[in-house]
Amino acid sequence: MAQPITFGKRVRWSYSEIDEVMPLPNLIEIQQSSYQWFLKEGLREIFNDISPIQDFTGNLILEFVDYHIEPGSKYSVEECKERDMTYSSPLKVIVRLINKETGEVKEQEVFMGDFPLMTENGTFIINGSERVIVSQLVRSPGVYYSKEIDKSGRPLFSGTVIPNRGAWLEMETDANGVMHVRIDRARKLPITVLVRALGYGTTSEILQLLGEEEKVFHTLEKDNTESEEEGLLEIYKRLRPGEPPTVESARSLLNTLFFDYKRYDLANVGRYKFNKKLRIRPRITNRRAGEDIINPLTGNIIVKVNEKITRQKADEIESCGINEIKILSDEGKTLKVIGNDFKRDGDTIQERDEKHVVKEDIIAAINYLVNLSHGIGFTDDIDHLGNRRLRSVGELLQNQFRIGLARMERVVKERMTIQDVDVITPQVLINIRPVVASVKEFFGSSQLSQFMDQTNPLAELTHKRRLSALGPGGLSRERAGFDVRDVHHSHYGRMCPIETPEGPNIGLIGSLSTFARINEYGFIETPYRKVDTERGVVTNEIVYLTADEEDEYYVAQANARLEL
Fold first, then answer.
1. Is position 85 within any domain?
2. Are 235 and 194 in contact (CB under 8 A)?
3. Could you tell me if 216 and 207 are in contact, meaning their C-beta atoms sit under 8 angstroms apart?
4. What one-character-per-residue DSSP string does 378-429 give?
5. Would you say the C-alpha torsion 433, 435, 439, 444 has a positive or negative sign?
6. What is the pLDDT confidence band of residue 352, given thresholds at 50, 70 and 90?
7. What is the CATH number of the domain that holds 213?
8. What is the structure's pLDDT at 146?
Protein backbone atom coordinates (compact mmCIF):
# COMPACT_ATOMS: atom_id res chain seq x y z
CA MET A 1 0.00 0.00 0.00
CA ALA A 2 1.34 3.46 -0.90
CA GLN A 3 2.35 5.62 2.04
CA PRO A 4 3.98 9.05 2.44
CA ILE A 5 7.59 9.20 3.70
CA THR A 6 9.29 12.46 4.68
CA PHE A 7 12.85 13.09 3.41
CA GLY A 8 14.04 16.39 4.91
CA LYS A 9 11.53 18.98 3.69
CA ARG A 10 10.13 16.75 0.93
CA VAL A 11 7.34 14.22 1.21
CA ARG A 12 7.63 11.22 -1.11
CA TRP A 13 5.27 8.33 -1.76
CA SER A 14 6.58 4.82 -1.15
CA TYR A 15 5.02 1.94 -3.10
CA SER A 16 7.27 -0.67 -1.43
CA GLU A 17 5.69 -3.94 -0.27
CA ILE A 18 8.11 -4.11 2.68
CA ASP A 19 7.53 -1.32 5.20
CA GLU A 20 10.38 0.95 6.26
CA VAL A 21 10.94 0.18 9.95
CA MET A 22 13.81 2.57 10.65
CA PRO A 23 14.86 5.93 9.23
CA LEU A 24 17.93 6.38 7.06
CA PRO A 25 21.02 6.86 9.30
CA ASN A 26 23.63 9.64 9.05
CA LEU A 27 25.60 8.37 6.04
CA ILE A 28 28.92 10.03 6.94
CA GLU A 29 28.86 9.04 10.61
CA ILE A 30 31.63 6.50 9.89
CA GLN A 31 33.98 9.46 9.27
CA GLN A 32 32.70 11.89 11.89
CA SER A 33 32.38 9.57 14.89
CA SER A 34 35.81 8.02 14.24
CA TYR A 35 37.52 11.43 14.12
CA GLN A 36 35.68 12.58 17.29
CA TRP A 37 36.84 9.39 19.04
CA PHE A 38 40.43 10.21 18.07
CA LEU A 39 40.24 13.75 19.47
CA LYS A 40 38.62 12.66 22.75
CA GLU A 41 40.15 9.24 23.44
CA GLY A 42 42.64 8.22 20.74
CA LEU A 43 45.12 11.02 21.48
CA ARG A 44 44.83 10.42 25.24
CA GLU A 45 45.61 6.70 24.73
CA ILE A 46 48.83 7.50 22.86
CA PHE A 47 50.01 10.07 25.41
CA ASN A 48 49.28 7.58 28.23
CA ASP A 49 51.21 4.84 26.39
CA ILE A 50 54.31 6.98 25.89
CA SER A 51 54.20 8.77 29.26
CA PRO A 52 56.38 8.88 31.32
CA ILE A 53 59.63 9.24 29.35
CA GLN A 54 62.69 8.63 31.57
CA ASP A 55 66.35 9.26 30.88
CA PHE A 56 68.84 6.38 31.06
CA THR A 57 69.68 7.12 34.72
CA GLY A 58 66.02 7.37 35.80
CA ASN A 59 66.64 10.83 37.26
CA LEU A 60 64.58 12.96 34.84
CA ILE A 61 60.94 12.09 34.11
CA LEU A 62 58.81 13.75 31.42
CA GLU A 63 55.04 13.30 31.72
CA PHE A 64 52.24 14.31 29.33
CA VAL A 65 49.53 15.57 31.67
CA ASP A 66 46.76 16.85 29.39
CA TYR A 67 46.12 18.18 25.89
CA HIS A 68 43.59 20.25 24.02
CA ILE A 69 42.98 21.35 20.44
CA GLU A 70 42.15 25.04 20.33
CA PRO A 71 38.60 25.64 19.09
CA GLY A 72 38.17 27.02 15.57
CA SER A 73 40.71 27.55 12.82
CA LYS A 74 42.59 30.69 11.78
CA TYR A 75 40.92 30.51 8.35
CA SER A 76 37.46 29.22 7.38
CA VAL A 77 37.04 26.22 5.06
CA GLU A 78 36.42 28.50 2.06
CA GLU A 79 39.44 30.71 2.85
CA CYS A 80 41.66 27.63 3.14
CA LYS A 81 40.54 26.49 -0.33
CA GLU A 82 41.23 29.94 -1.82
CA ARG A 83 44.62 30.45 -0.13
CA ASP A 84 45.86 26.83 -0.55
CA MET A 85 46.04 26.48 3.23
CA THR A 86 45.38 23.53 5.55
CA TYR A 87 42.20 23.73 7.65
CA SER A 88 43.77 23.08 11.06
CA SER A 89 44.02 24.14 14.68
CA PRO A 90 46.97 24.18 17.15
CA LEU A 91 47.44 21.13 19.41
CA LYS A 92 48.65 22.20 22.87
CA VAL A 93 49.97 19.71 25.43
CA ILE A 94 50.67 20.31 29.13
CA VAL A 95 54.01 18.64 29.88
CA ARG A 96 55.55 18.09 33.32
CA LEU A 97 59.29 17.57 33.92
CA ILE A 98 60.28 16.03 37.27
CA ASN A 99 63.86 16.01 38.58
CA LYS A 100 64.07 13.17 41.12
CA GLU A 101 67.36 14.36 42.66
CA THR A 102 66.23 17.87 43.53
CA GLY A 103 62.47 17.17 43.61
CA GLU A 104 61.96 20.12 41.25
CA VAL A 105 58.83 20.03 39.04
CA LYS A 106 58.49 22.18 35.91
CA GLU A 107 55.20 22.34 34.01
CA GLN A 108 54.72 23.99 30.61
CA GLU A 109 52.18 24.15 27.81
CA VAL A 110 53.94 22.99 24.65
CA PHE A 111 52.75 23.58 21.07
CA MET A 112 52.75 20.22 19.22
CA GLY A 113 51.97 21.45 15.71
CA ASP A 114 48.83 22.37 13.79
CA PHE A 115 46.40 19.47 13.62
CA PRO A 116 44.10 19.12 10.55
CA LEU A 117 40.41 19.49 11.45
CA MET A 118 37.57 17.57 9.84
CA THR A 119 34.97 19.73 8.10
CA GLU A 120 31.28 19.15 8.84
CA ASN A 121 31.11 17.18 5.57
CA GLY A 122 33.59 14.56 6.83
CA THR A 123 36.55 15.76 4.72
CA PHE A 124 39.90 17.50 5.34
CA ILE A 125 41.30 20.56 3.56
CA ILE A 126 45.01 19.90 3.00
CA ASN A 127 46.96 22.60 1.11
CA GLY A 128 43.70 23.89 -0.36
CA SER A 129 42.46 20.57 -1.73
CA GLU A 130 39.61 18.58 -0.22
CA ARG A 131 40.69 15.08 0.81
CA VAL A 132 38.93 12.00 2.16
CA ILE A 133 40.48 9.33 4.39
CA VAL A 134 39.18 5.97 3.15
CA SER A 135 38.44 3.31 5.81
CA GLN A 136 40.68 0.25 5.63
CA LEU A 137 39.44 -3.34 5.90
CA VAL A 138 42.12 -5.43 7.63
CA ARG A 139 42.52 -8.79 9.34
CA SER A 140 41.56 -8.48 13.00
CA PRO A 141 44.13 -9.34 15.70
CA GLY A 142 43.29 -12.67 17.34
CA VAL A 143 43.96 -16.43 17.18
CA TYR A 144 43.16 -18.17 13.89
CA TYR A 145 43.20 -21.88 13.05
CA SER A 146 43.25 -23.49 9.62
CA LYS A 147 43.15 -27.01 8.21
CA GLU A 148 45.07 -28.52 5.30
CA ILE A 149 44.92 -32.03 3.85
CA ASP A 150 48.37 -33.61 3.33
CA LYS A 151 49.36 -35.99 0.51
CA SER A 152 48.16 -39.06 2.40
CA GLY A 153 44.74 -37.45 2.99
CA ARG A 154 45.23 -36.69 6.68
CA PRO A 155 44.14 -33.31 8.07
CA LEU A 156 46.94 -31.07 9.37
CA PHE A 157 45.97 -28.17 11.62
CA SER A 158 47.84 -24.94 12.18
CA GLY A 159 47.23 -21.82 14.25
CA THR A 160 48.45 -18.22 14.17
CA VAL A 161 48.43 -15.70 17.01
CA ILE A 162 48.22 -12.25 15.38
CA PRO A 163 48.69 -9.09 17.48
CA ASN A 164 47.84 -5.53 16.50
CA ARG A 165 51.53 -4.70 16.89
CA GLY A 166 54.31 -7.16 17.72
CA ALA A 167 55.72 -10.63 17.02
CA TRP A 168 53.56 -13.31 15.37
CA LEU A 169 53.35 -16.81 16.87
CA GLU A 170 52.73 -19.53 14.26
CA MET A 171 51.88 -23.08 15.35
CA GLU A 172 51.68 -26.07 13.02
CA THR A 173 51.45 -29.87 13.05
CA ASP A 174 53.51 -31.96 10.62
CA ALA A 175 52.67 -35.34 9.05
CA ASN A 176 54.40 -37.18 11.94
CA GLY A 177 52.20 -35.53 14.54
CA VAL A 178 54.95 -33.22 15.82
CA MET A 179 53.79 -29.72 16.77
CA HIS A 180 56.14 -26.86 15.89
CA VAL A 181 56.10 -23.16 16.65
CA ARG A 182 57.60 -20.20 14.78
CA ILE A 183 58.28 -17.05 16.78
CA ASP A 184 58.38 -13.89 14.70
CA ARG A 185 59.01 -15.75 11.41
CA ALA A 186 62.22 -17.34 12.77
CA ARG A 187 63.15 -21.02 12.26
CA LYS A 188 60.60 -23.41 13.75
CA LEU A 189 61.17 -25.34 16.96
CA PRO A 190 59.14 -27.96 18.89
CA ILE A 191 56.18 -26.36 20.66
CA THR A 192 57.19 -27.93 23.99
CA VAL A 193 60.35 -25.76 24.00
CA LEU A 194 58.11 -22.69 24.24
CA VAL A 195 55.97 -24.36 26.94
CA ARG A 196 59.14 -25.07 28.97
CA ALA A 197 60.31 -21.46 28.54
CA LEU A 198 56.95 -20.27 29.93
CA GLY A 199 57.71 -21.99 33.25
CA TYR A 200 56.60 -25.61 32.75
CA GLY A 201 60.16 -26.96 32.78
CA THR A 202 59.88 -30.72 33.31
CA THR A 203 58.34 -33.29 30.99
CA SER A 204 55.91 -34.41 33.71
CA GLU A 205 54.67 -30.80 34.12
CA ILE A 206 54.06 -30.56 30.35
CA LEU A 207 52.14 -33.87 30.27
CA GLN A 208 50.09 -32.78 33.27
CA LEU A 209 49.35 -29.44 31.58
CA LEU A 210 48.58 -30.55 28.00
CA GLY A 211 47.37 -34.08 28.78
CA GLU A 212 48.93 -37.41 27.76
CA GLU A 213 48.27 -36.85 24.07
CA GLU A 214 49.91 -38.71 21.20
CA LYS A 215 50.94 -35.40 19.58
CA VAL A 216 52.51 -34.20 22.83
CA PHE A 217 54.59 -37.41 23.10
CA HIS A 218 55.74 -37.09 19.45
CA THR A 219 56.73 -33.46 20.07
CA LEU A 220 58.63 -34.31 23.27
CA GLU A 221 60.68 -36.89 21.32
CA LYS A 222 61.93 -34.10 19.04
CA ASP A 223 62.54 -31.73 21.98
CA ASN A 224 66.21 -31.68 23.07
CA THR A 225 65.61 -29.44 26.10
CA GLU A 226 64.82 -30.70 29.60
CA SER A 227 64.25 -27.60 31.75
CA GLU A 228 62.92 -24.05 31.70
CA GLU A 229 66.46 -22.61 31.36
CA GLU A 230 67.31 -24.87 28.40
CA GLY A 231 64.01 -23.91 26.74
CA LEU A 232 64.80 -20.20 27.12
CA LEU A 233 68.33 -20.66 25.72
CA GLU A 234 67.03 -22.66 22.73
CA ILE A 235 64.56 -19.89 21.84
CA TYR A 236 67.30 -17.26 22.24
CA LYS A 237 69.61 -19.18 19.87
CA ARG A 238 66.88 -19.29 17.20
CA LEU A 239 65.95 -15.61 17.51
CA ARG A 240 69.44 -14.17 18.06
CA PRO A 241 71.87 -16.49 16.23
CA GLY A 242 75.51 -15.53 16.75
CA GLU A 243 74.97 -13.80 20.10
CA PRO A 244 76.20 -15.52 23.31
CA PRO A 245 73.08 -16.91 25.05
CA THR A 246 72.47 -16.39 28.76
CA VAL A 247 69.34 -17.29 30.73
CA GLU A 248 68.81 -13.67 31.83
CA SER A 249 69.04 -12.21 28.31
CA ALA A 250 66.78 -15.02 27.00
CA ARG A 251 64.16 -14.36 29.67
CA SER A 252 64.26 -10.61 29.01
CA LEU A 253 63.94 -11.24 25.23
CA LEU A 254 60.84 -13.40 25.74
CA ASN A 255 59.31 -10.80 28.07
CA THR A 256 60.03 -8.01 25.58
CA LEU A 257 58.59 -10.02 22.67
CA PHE A 258 55.26 -10.96 24.25
CA PHE A 259 54.66 -9.51 27.70
CA ASP A 260 55.65 -5.84 27.29
CA TYR A 261 52.68 -3.71 26.22
CA LYS A 262 54.99 -1.18 24.51
CA ARG A 263 56.33 -3.85 22.12
CA TYR A 264 53.32 -6.17 21.95
CA ASP A 265 49.88 -4.67 21.62
CA LEU A 266 46.66 -6.63 21.16
CA ALA A 267 44.43 -3.54 21.37
CA ASN A 268 40.90 -3.88 22.79
CA VAL A 269 39.74 -5.76 19.71
CA GLY A 270 42.56 -8.32 20.01
CA ARG A 271 41.74 -9.04 23.65
CA TYR A 272 38.03 -9.37 22.75
CA LYS A 273 38.84 -11.84 19.92
CA PHE A 274 41.26 -13.83 22.13
CA ASN A 275 38.67 -14.18 24.91
CA LYS A 276 35.95 -15.09 22.40
CA LYS A 277 38.02 -17.76 20.64
CA LEU A 278 39.78 -19.34 23.61
CA ARG A 279 36.88 -19.38 26.07
CA ILE A 280 35.72 -22.81 27.20
CA ARG A 281 31.96 -22.60 26.48
CA PRO A 282 31.81 -23.14 22.66
CA ARG A 283 34.18 -26.14 22.89
CA ILE A 284 32.34 -28.01 25.65
CA THR A 285 28.70 -27.36 24.69
CA ASN A 286 26.90 -30.61 23.71
CA ARG A 287 29.93 -32.71 24.76
CA ARG A 288 29.96 -35.34 27.51
CA ALA A 289 31.89 -34.63 30.70
CA GLY A 290 35.02 -36.75 31.32
CA GLU A 291 34.85 -36.17 35.09
CA ASP A 292 32.55 -34.66 37.71
CA ILE A 293 32.64 -30.88 37.22
CA ILE A 294 32.43 -29.16 40.60
CA ASN A 295 31.68 -25.50 41.35
CA PRO A 296 34.82 -24.28 43.22
CA LEU A 297 32.81 -21.58 45.02
CA THR A 298 30.05 -23.82 46.46
CA GLY A 299 31.43 -27.36 46.14
CA ASN A 300 28.26 -28.51 44.29
CA ILE A 301 28.48 -30.82 41.27
CA ILE A 302 27.46 -28.91 38.10
CA VAL A 303 27.78 -31.84 35.66
CA LYS A 304 28.32 -35.52 36.49
CA VAL A 305 30.78 -37.71 34.61
CA ASN A 306 29.44 -38.90 31.21
CA GLU A 307 26.57 -36.38 31.39
CA LYS A 308 25.94 -34.14 28.36
CA ILE A 309 26.92 -30.49 28.92
CA THR A 310 24.06 -28.24 27.78
CA ARG A 311 24.49 -24.58 26.78
CA GLN A 312 23.11 -23.51 30.22
CA LYS A 313 25.53 -25.84 32.06
CA ALA A 314 28.44 -24.58 29.92
CA ASP A 315 27.50 -21.00 30.86
CA GLU A 316 27.40 -21.99 34.52
CA ILE A 317 30.82 -23.69 34.30
CA GLU A 318 32.28 -20.57 32.70
CA SER A 319 30.71 -18.17 35.20
CA CYS A 320 32.35 -20.14 38.06
CA GLY A 321 35.76 -19.22 36.60
CA ILE A 322 36.69 -22.83 35.73
CA ASN A 323 39.45 -22.72 33.10
CA GLU A 324 40.25 -26.45 32.80
CA ILE A 325 37.88 -29.40 32.41
CA LYS A 326 37.97 -32.91 30.96
CA ILE A 327 35.48 -33.98 28.29
CA LEU A 328 34.96 -37.08 26.14
CA SER A 329 35.65 -36.94 22.40
CA ASP A 330 33.42 -38.67 19.81
CA GLU A 331 35.72 -41.73 20.03
CA GLY A 332 35.26 -41.78 23.83
CA LYS A 333 38.77 -40.49 24.57
CA THR A 334 39.21 -38.22 27.61
CA LEU A 335 40.52 -34.81 26.53
CA LYS A 336 41.56 -31.77 28.51
CA VAL A 337 40.08 -28.40 27.49
CA ILE A 338 41.95 -25.30 28.70
CA GLY A 339 40.53 -21.78 28.43
CA ASN A 340 42.13 -18.40 29.02
CA ASP A 341 39.10 -16.34 29.69
CA PHE A 342 38.65 -15.82 33.40
CA LYS A 343 40.97 -14.86 36.22
CA ARG A 344 39.94 -15.30 39.82
CA ASP A 345 40.73 -12.72 42.46
CA GLY A 346 39.40 -14.20 45.72
CA ASP A 347 35.70 -14.79 45.08
CA THR A 348 35.42 -12.30 42.22
CA ILE A 349 35.74 -13.61 38.67
CA GLN A 350 36.44 -11.32 35.75
CA GLU A 351 37.38 -11.46 32.08
CA ARG A 352 40.98 -10.92 31.09
CA ASP A 353 41.72 -7.36 30.05
CA GLU A 354 45.50 -7.31 29.47
CA LYS A 355 46.57 -5.54 26.28
CA HIS A 356 49.37 -8.06 25.65
CA VAL A 357 49.27 -11.88 25.58
CA VAL A 358 49.68 -13.70 28.86
CA LYS A 359 50.99 -17.20 29.58
CA GLU A 360 47.41 -18.53 29.86
CA ASP A 361 46.60 -17.28 26.33
CA ILE A 362 49.52 -19.19 24.79
CA ILE A 363 48.74 -22.41 26.72
CA ALA A 364 45.03 -22.20 25.77
CA ALA A 365 45.99 -21.59 22.10
CA ILE A 366 48.26 -24.69 22.10
CA ASN A 367 45.52 -26.76 23.79
CA TYR A 368 43.01 -25.62 21.12
CA LEU A 369 45.41 -26.84 18.39
CA VAL A 370 45.84 -30.23 20.12
CA ASN A 371 42.06 -30.74 20.42
CA LEU A 372 41.24 -29.72 16.83
CA SER A 373 42.31 -33.14 15.51
CA HIS A 374 39.67 -34.71 17.82
CA GLY A 375 36.92 -32.53 16.36
CA ILE A 376 36.80 -30.15 19.32
CA GLY A 377 36.93 -26.48 18.34
CA PHE A 378 36.47 -24.79 14.97
CA THR A 379 38.76 -23.64 12.17
CA ASP A 380 38.41 -20.06 10.95
CA ASP A 381 37.46 -18.53 7.62
CA ILE A 382 39.76 -15.53 7.20
CA ASP A 383 37.47 -13.89 4.62
CA HIS A 384 34.53 -13.88 7.04
CA LEU A 385 33.63 -10.34 8.15
CA GLY A 386 33.70 -11.58 11.76
CA ASN A 387 37.49 -11.84 11.29
CA ARG A 388 37.99 -8.62 9.32
CA ARG A 389 37.56 -5.20 10.81
CA LEU A 390 37.58 -1.56 9.75
CA ARG A 391 40.30 0.91 10.60
CA SER A 392 38.59 4.25 10.13
CA VAL A 393 40.15 7.72 10.02
CA GLY A 394 40.55 7.97 13.82
CA GLU A 395 42.51 4.74 14.22
CA LEU A 396 44.63 5.38 11.11
CA LEU A 397 45.52 8.82 12.49
CA GLN A 398 46.27 7.32 15.91
CA ASN A 399 48.72 4.80 14.40
CA GLN A 400 50.47 7.56 12.45
CA PHE A 401 50.63 9.86 15.47
CA ARG A 402 52.09 7.00 17.53
CA ILE A 403 54.93 6.60 15.01
CA GLY A 404 55.72 10.33 15.28
CA LEU A 405 55.67 10.27 19.09
CA ALA A 406 57.94 7.19 19.20
CA ARG A 407 60.52 9.07 17.09
CA MET A 408 60.13 12.09 19.36
CA GLU A 409 60.68 9.89 22.44
CA ARG A 410 64.14 8.88 21.17
CA VAL A 411 65.06 12.55 20.65
CA VAL A 412 63.83 13.47 24.16
CA LYS A 413 65.93 10.70 25.76
CA GLU A 414 69.05 11.87 23.89
CA ARG A 415 68.48 15.50 24.89
CA MET A 416 68.00 14.51 28.54
CA THR A 417 71.55 13.14 28.64
CA ILE A 418 73.12 16.09 26.76
CA GLN A 419 71.37 19.13 28.30
CA ASP A 420 72.35 20.81 31.56
CA VAL A 421 69.95 19.54 34.25
CA ASP A 422 69.58 22.95 35.95
CA VAL A 423 68.36 24.90 32.91
CA ILE A 424 66.41 22.11 31.22
CA THR A 425 62.69 22.71 30.50
CA PRO A 426 60.00 20.61 28.75
CA GLN A 427 60.05 23.08 25.82
CA VAL A 428 63.79 22.48 25.30
CA LEU A 429 63.43 18.69 25.42
CA ILE A 430 60.53 18.31 23.00
CA ASN A 431 61.19 18.44 19.28
CA ILE A 432 57.84 18.48 17.48
CA ARG A 433 59.28 17.92 13.99
CA PRO A 434 58.87 14.09 13.91
CA VAL A 435 55.21 14.38 15.03
CA VAL A 436 54.35 17.14 12.54
CA ALA A 437 56.17 15.28 9.74
CA SER A 438 54.35 11.99 10.35
CA VAL A 439 50.90 13.67 10.37
CA LYS A 440 51.79 15.65 7.22
CA GLU A 441 53.06 12.51 5.52
CA PHE A 442 49.82 10.67 6.33
CA PHE A 443 47.50 13.35 4.96
CA GLY A 444 49.73 14.22 2.02
CA SER A 445 50.98 10.91 0.67
CA SER A 446 49.23 7.94 2.33
CA GLN A 447 47.51 5.50 -0.01
CA LEU A 448 44.32 5.95 2.06
CA SER A 449 44.32 9.78 1.90
CA GLN A 450 42.70 10.59 -1.46
CA PHE A 451 41.47 13.64 -3.36
CA MET A 452 37.71 13.71 -2.91
CA ASP A 453 35.74 12.54 -5.93
CA GLN A 454 33.74 15.71 -6.70
CA THR A 455 31.95 14.56 -9.87
CA ASN A 456 28.56 14.93 -8.15
CA PRO A 457 27.14 14.81 -4.59
CA LEU A 458 26.51 11.06 -4.82
CA ALA A 459 30.14 10.41 -5.84
CA GLU A 460 31.29 12.45 -2.80
CA LEU A 461 29.10 10.44 -0.45
CA THR A 462 30.19 7.11 -1.93
CA HIS A 463 33.85 8.08 -1.57
CA LYS A 464 33.43 8.78 2.16
CA ARG A 465 31.79 5.36 2.67
CA ARG A 466 34.39 3.43 0.66
CA LEU A 467 36.20 0.44 2.20
CA SER A 468 39.66 -0.51 0.96
CA ALA A 469 41.69 -3.65 1.68
CA LEU A 470 44.79 -1.92 0.24
CA GLY A 471 47.16 0.46 2.00
CA PRO A 472 49.81 0.14 4.75
CA GLY A 473 49.25 -3.01 6.82
CA GLY A 474 46.71 -4.29 4.28
CA LEU A 475 46.92 -6.35 1.08
CA SER A 476 48.72 -5.51 -2.13
CA ARG A 477 46.82 -5.93 -5.39
CA GLU A 478 49.60 -8.13 -6.81
CA ARG A 479 49.48 -10.67 -3.97
CA ALA A 480 45.72 -10.75 -3.31
CA GLY A 481 44.11 -13.99 -4.48
CA PHE A 482 40.58 -14.82 -5.59
CA ASP A 483 39.27 -15.75 -2.13
CA VAL A 484 39.89 -12.30 -0.64
CA ARG A 485 38.21 -10.57 -3.59
CA ASP A 486 35.17 -12.83 -3.71
CA VAL A 487 31.68 -12.06 -2.42
CA HIS A 488 31.20 -13.75 0.97
CA HIS A 489 27.91 -14.65 2.68
CA SER A 490 28.91 -12.46 5.66
CA HIS A 491 28.85 -9.38 3.36
CA TYR A 492 25.04 -9.56 3.50
CA GLY A 493 23.76 -6.25 4.92
CA ARG A 494 27.32 -5.04 5.58
CA MET A 495 29.10 -4.53 2.26
CA CYS A 496 27.63 -3.98 -1.17
CA PRO A 497 28.22 -7.16 -3.24
CA ILE A 498 27.95 -5.24 -6.52
CA GLU A 499 29.75 -1.92 -6.23
CA THR A 500 33.45 -2.64 -6.77
CA PRO A 501 35.80 -1.42 -9.52
CA GLU A 502 36.69 -3.50 -12.55
CA GLY A 503 40.34 -4.29 -13.17
CA PRO A 504 43.16 -5.04 -10.70
CA ASN A 505 41.26 -3.62 -7.68
CA ILE A 506 38.18 -5.79 -8.12
CA GLY A 507 36.92 -7.04 -4.75
CA LEU A 508 39.60 -5.12 -2.82
CA ILE A 509 37.60 -1.89 -2.77
CA GLY A 510 33.96 -1.94 -1.71
CA SER A 511 31.23 0.21 -0.17
CA LEU A 512 29.53 0.15 3.21
CA SER A 513 25.84 -0.83 3.16
CA THR A 514 23.29 1.90 3.85
CA PHE A 515 22.08 0.72 7.27
CA ALA A 516 25.38 -0.83 8.43
CA ARG A 517 27.33 0.71 11.28
CA ILE A 518 30.73 0.15 12.91
CA ASN A 519 30.92 -1.07 16.51
CA GLU A 520 33.56 -0.15 19.13
CA TYR A 521 35.90 -2.92 17.91
CA GLY A 522 35.69 -1.92 14.23
CA PHE A 523 33.43 -4.81 13.13
CA ILE A 524 30.56 -4.03 10.77
CA GLU A 525 27.09 -4.51 12.27
CA THR A 526 23.82 -4.74 10.37
CA PRO A 527 20.26 -4.33 11.73
CA TYR A 528 17.75 -7.17 11.98
CA ARG A 529 14.16 -7.21 13.23
CA LYS A 530 13.65 -9.57 16.11
CA VAL A 531 11.14 -12.42 15.77
CA ASP A 532 8.94 -13.27 18.74
CA THR A 533 9.21 -17.07 18.46
CA GLU A 534 6.38 -17.74 20.94
CA ARG A 535 3.83 -15.75 18.95
CA GLY A 536 5.52 -16.25 15.58
CA VAL A 537 5.46 -12.50 14.94
CA VAL A 538 8.10 -10.14 13.56
CA THR A 539 8.48 -7.31 16.06
CA ASN A 540 9.66 -3.76 15.38
CA GLU A 541 12.56 -4.25 17.81
CA ILE A 542 15.83 -3.76 15.93
CA VAL A 543 19.02 -5.59 16.91
CA TYR A 544 22.45 -4.87 15.38
CA LEU A 545 24.53 -8.01 14.83
CA THR A 546 28.15 -8.51 13.77
CA ALA A 547 28.89 -11.27 11.23
CA ASP A 548 29.97 -13.84 13.84
CA GLU A 549 26.98 -13.07 16.11
CA GLU A 550 24.64 -13.51 13.13
CA ASP A 551 25.96 -17.05 12.59
CA GLU A 552 24.40 -18.08 15.92
CA TYR A 553 20.84 -17.24 14.76
CA TYR A 554 18.40 -18.27 12.04
CA VAL A 555 17.65 -15.34 9.73
CA ALA A 556 14.36 -15.30 7.78
CA GLN A 557 13.94 -13.57 4.41
CA ALA A 558 12.79 -9.96 4.39
CA ASN A 559 9.86 -10.82 2.11
CA ALA A 560 8.62 -13.73 4.26
CA ARG A 561 4.89 -13.43 4.96
CA LEU A 562 4.24 -11.53 8.17
CA GLU A 563 1.18 -12.45 10.18
CA LEU A 564 0.38 -9.04 11.61
1. yes
2. yes
3. yes
4. ----TTSTTSEEEE-HHHHHHHHHHHHHHHHHHHHHHHHHHS-TTT--HHHH
5. positive
6. low
7. 3.90.1110.10
8. 93
